[in-house]
Amino acid sequence: MKKTRGFLLVAAAMFLTFSCSSGDDSGGGTCSTNFKTVRIGTQIWMAENLNCDAKGSVCYDGDPANCERYGRLYNRKTALTICPKGWHLPSEAEWDILINYAGDSSTAGIKLKATGGWNEDDDGVSGNGTDALDFSALPGGMCTWNGNLCSHIGNWGYWWTATESGSSGSDNRAIGGYGANSFVSGHPGFLETDLISVRCVKD
User: Fold this and answer.
1) For residue range 1-55, what is the model confidence (pLDDT) as tens digits?
2) Could you tell me which of 125, 92, 132, 94 has the C-alpha nearest to residue 110?
3) Nearest to 100 by CA among 182, 5, 8
4) Do the Cβ atoms of 155 and 127 come closer than 8 Å?
5) How many CA atoms, within 13 angstroms, populate the side-chain half-sphere of residue 73?
6) More confident residue, 4 or 63
7) Which residues make Cβ contacts (< 8 Å) with residue 183, sequence separation at least 6?
8) Which residues does residue 11 pair with via DSSP β-bridges, in sequence order?
9) Domain ranges across the chain
10) φ, ψ of residue 35 in degrees (nearest 5)
11) More confident position, 30 or 197
């Protein structure tokens, strides 16, 4: 266990069984899996990307191995309803609490990134982080056109927020960069039909 700024950080595995909501009238499937969770400051987060099969979600490039490693990618409508009971899609403000706990948007990236799974840049600088908060952010990339066009896996992680989009890209948070230059930001320009990752936070 780690102590950071006077808070005790505890990573614990939970067994969650829940019905996935697809975000539309067709319903979803049942998702029964072990989800790692972590307490960071006053919040409890899922410590891995959601991987629940439901309409409105895809595996990157249609490859189930990418779902196993990075989680599924969800359109916005599905993301807003996919978290299990007792959990919810975090707002922009809830993401910012996490980011500020880790320092700020220019320093949080390296602490939130997993220690593996990130590509190197052209100069050989690793994109991996320190995972100092046990958040284990992974670069699942994004897909468009119902999953037919995918990009940025290994280089960028994108996560929906529950906050409506604005000029700052407040409906999502993105983690990228390399080494000490890793950062967290919003990413303007996503469409509601684009597919990116989901993390849930406890109610």
Assistant:
1) 443 333 333 444 444 545 555 444 444 455 655 788 999 999 999 999 999 999 9
2) 132
3) 5
4) yes
5) 34
6) 63
7) 105, 106, 108, 109, 175, 176, 177
8) 38
9) 2-202
10) -110, 125
11) 197
